[in-house]
Every structure is written in structure tokens, then in C-alpha cells.
Amino acid sequence: xxxxxxxxxxxxxxxxxxxxxxxxxxxxxxxxxxxxxxxxxxxxxxxxxxxxxxxxxxxxxxxxxxxxxxxxxxxxxxxxxxxxxxxxxxxxxxxxxxxxxxxxxxxxxxxxxxxxxxxxxxxxxxxxxxxxxxxxxxxxxxxxxxxxxxxxxxxxxxxxxxxxxxxxxxxxxxxxxxxxxxxxxxxxxxxxxxxxxxxxxxxxxxxxxxxxxxxxxxxxxxxxxxxxxxxxxxxxxxxxxxxxxxxxxxxxxxxxxxxxxxxxxxxxxxxxxxxxxxxxxxxxxxxxxxxxxxxxxxxxxxxxxxxxxxxxxxxxxxxxxxxxxxxxxxxxxxxxxxxxxxxxxxxxxxxxxxxxxxxxxxxxxxxxxxxxxxxxxxxxxxxxxxxxxxxxxxxxxxxxxxxxxxxxxxxxxxxxxxxxxxxxxxxxxxxxxxxxxxxxxxxxxxxxxxxxxxxxxxxxxxxxxxxxxxxxxxxxxxxxxxxxxxxxxxxxxxxxxxxxxxxxxxxxxxxxxxxxxxxxxxxxxxxxxxxxxxxxxxxxxxxxxxxxxxxxxxxxxxxxxxxx
Length: 564
What we know:
Blueprint: E1 2-4, E2 18-22, E3 33-34, E4 43-49, E5 63-71, E6 82-92, E7 117-122, E8 134-146, E9 154-160, E10 172-173, H1 178-181, E11 183-189, E12 198-200, E13 206-212, E14 218-222, E15 233-237, E16 247-253, E17 259-265, E18 288-296, E19 299-307, E20 311-314, H2 326-330, E21 336-341, E22 354-360, E23 363-374, E24 383-390, E25 397-404, E26 416-421, E27 439-440, E28 449-452, E29 461-467, E30 473-481, E31 506-511, E32 517-522, E33 533-542, E34 551-553, E35 556-560
Parallel strand pairs: 1-32
Antiparallel strand pairs: 2-13, 3-10, 4-9, 4-11, 5-8, 5-13, 6-7, 6-9, 11-12, 14-35, 15-26, 16-17, 16-25, 17-27, 18-19, 19-20, 20-21, 21-26, 22-23, 23-24, 24-25, 28-29, 29-32, 30-31, 30-33, 33-34, 33-35
């Protein structure tokens, strides 16, 4: 529903010059390098950087990019050279960074015009650190205005027209994995006039100098909606210590799509009786058939894959993960049960300090995966623990049994993680103390979310969307206000865990008809309102009610009105 706005309170914003490194994963570390950008040759290269690299911009608004800097390879010393002629062009990419054409013109959203930079380039001395310093600096004669909210990737086209003097190259810090680093390039080495190039996963790391565009409208998300629910759980032991030795963690499925979890002392590890899997360092086993269909929250499988690093994958394989890293659990390609996800080192040969997988000799309805006397990488203290998958009809259980557990690997500071997740980008519930008492998880449920579909430009429509509207929603209300109450927990009115990030100056009800609801405001073209803040959020009443008040609320959106 589109409404008309009639009153505001005026505010102002301060715009200052800033920098941003793309790809963002390389902000503090080198992730790759290439000798084929600032080389002893001519080159044309198109570099594609995903819009996600600009997510850290505050506010999310257009920026005027006025400088490009390139970083030397780790620990290197600059070869001081002069390139007689270099052109750099910035524009919106016509393609997604994952699927560029090898034809240069097909990737441009506009024909090449005046370069944003043109002239000679003299390389600069750097400190030789890791990551290293910025050895090429291009202050743009023509700044480029980039609006990341449009969802189009940034295209940098660099043309080195002349061989450097002297003719020696410099290796440049770069991306190296397209999907991980979210960048890509098309390169023609040795020519500046060919119409086609070849794909390379090694676009340069670039530090962008920019200034937020004056008088630009922008949106800021405030707080978070309710209620976010989590199926995953874990405890992260960040240093070389844990409290699970002698403990039993019991995981029982519940009716809410998660596990009821309780930890008790007195675990008993059933000794293995069969030949071990002969797993070595950082190895995932071949598929191991289970004697029954094992049901877990959200799925079922009749096979597992054993990771030598203290965890198993359900139903499908994936890479070994030797760091107790939360992302490795939540983004796993297959569901993982981690008894002790840390850098373990099975002997790989003798099967004494190794991993075993077998039916429980005393219970045909249980399948046991045992790490028997396995030390951590770089250490000698043995750990003995076990994952028991127990067939119980439609309520199959998991027991994590710990006889001894040491997380003293010399890698990753001995970090260790215990927990369960279906992976595939599961919600992060945060670390919890497994020995602090019983708890329950439920199927992942996203909170009510309000997002802006457009920036609040004066004289245009400010379009918004409420999503994750629950199927039991009955009536929704859009709220607009002149202020942000800043309340993140409305427990005192029966809305525990829900916030309110807009005053109630305008209230617009609507009937729930689906999982999303579009709404917005028609903004007047009144220049005097430039810089004014306006606030909005949504609430949805559900049947049955989720709390005493009967509703859930979304995050807030602060719209700062602008002229462009």
C-alpha cells in the first residue's frame, strides 16, 4: 500500500572521504596473487566485483569512487618502474561476476568513453609486509558514482598501453577463487586491442577511495525482527580446554523439528571390536552403510561419511574440516554431527589410534563411530569419544559419549566445536554451554523482516517490503514515525524478544494474503526536507498468538530523505 507523507523532522549527515577494499575477504590478508596485471607487458583486463563487497557501507547509498590503489604481493619489494600510458574505466557490469563473457564489449553496460584515469603510472615503494602496501595509486580525474543498492556488480577495466621502463613486472595481490572471493576477470595479456580475452580467477585486490554522494537518500536497518528460531546448536571451545570429558550428550528429536539436548556425567564408550577405517590426516571416508534408516530433524539417511576430524556427515559427503570453525558447521554441504570438530591426527595405518565404525555388538539398533586414542595435530594426548546413532522408530537418538577429550592441536589454537547442523547456510544460534542444563532446538524460522526496495528520494516512491510473514498470520500493520524509540525488547507489553523501531504516528492495517507484503510512501518533492529521517516497521498478529500481546514485529528501517 502506497501512502503520502506530510511531515518530517529535519536532521543532517556528515560525509567524509573513506576507503573500501574489494574483494572484502582480502581486507586483512592475502588470498591470492598474480604477475599478470602490472606486468612487463601490455594488458587489458576487466575485473568484476560483486555488490556484496559493498554491504559494509554505512549508509547504503551511492558513493563517488575517486581513487584506485593496487596491493603488492605479500612480503615483496616493489620493482620501481614507469608505465607511460594507463587507462582505467569504471562502470556497472552488464553481467554477473560469475558469468562474464570472453568478449569485452558484452560485459560493458555502456561503451567506453572518457577514462576515469588516464596517464602515466609510477610504482611506489612499500614496506614489504603481509599483507603488503599499495604500490600503484591512481587518483581518478573523473570520479565514478556507484550505487550498490541497484544490485549491479562493479566493473573495472584496466588497460596498460605500454611496457614499463625498465621492463620488469610486479606481482599483485589478487583474488583466486571466484565463488569464495566473489570476483572474477577477463584478461588479454600481450594485447590492448583484441576484442576477446580469457577468464581468470585472479582479479587484483583494489582499495577504492570514495566519498558518499552529497544529498543522497539512503536506508538504514534498525534492530531485528522476531522471532528467529534455530535448529542448529553448538558449543565452541576457542582455546585448548573443554569440559566434556566423562560427559554424555543426548540428542532426542522433538515435535518442533529440532533436538531436545541434555548433558549428563557418566558416559561409557563401547570399545571397538572391528578393523578401523585407517583414516589419516584430514580425510573423509567413503560411504558407510547404516543397518537402519537414521532419522534426524528435517531428513533421513541410510549412509554416513566419517571425517577424521571428529565429526560425521549424514547422507552426502563433503570436505574434511580441521578447524573448529562455526562456518564449517553451519555452511556444511551436508548435515553434520560434530562430537569434537578439531584438528585430529589418526595414525592412518595401525588402526590403534584411529576411527572405527560398526554396529554396537550389544545392541543391533545402535551404530557406533569411535575415535579411539586419537591425538590432536602436533600433540600427543589421546582422545577417546564416540557418536552413537540409535534407531528408535521415528525418534532416532544420538549420543555423544566422551571418555577423554583433549583439544590441544598446535593449529587453530586448539579450537574445538561440538554440535549439530543441517548446514547449507543454517542460522547461527551462537555458542552455548552444553553442560549448563537441558535445552531444545526447533526448525529454522526467519524473523519478520522489513527491507527497502528503493531509496527514499524526494519526489519519488519509497518502496518497502515485509517478508517472512508466517502462514498463521491474520492481520498486519505498517507503522510510520518521526522518531526511533530504540526499544529492542517489548517484554513489558507482552512482546518478549520483539522490538519497536518506529513511533506510531501513522498506522496502516492490512490483511495477510501471503508470505510477503509490499507497501510504501509517495514522497513530496520538497528540497527543504533533504536529510530528514523517517522511520517504518511492520507488525503481524497471528493465530494462535506467539506471545501475550499476540503479534510479532519486524526490524525497523530508517529512511534518510535525499535529492538523489
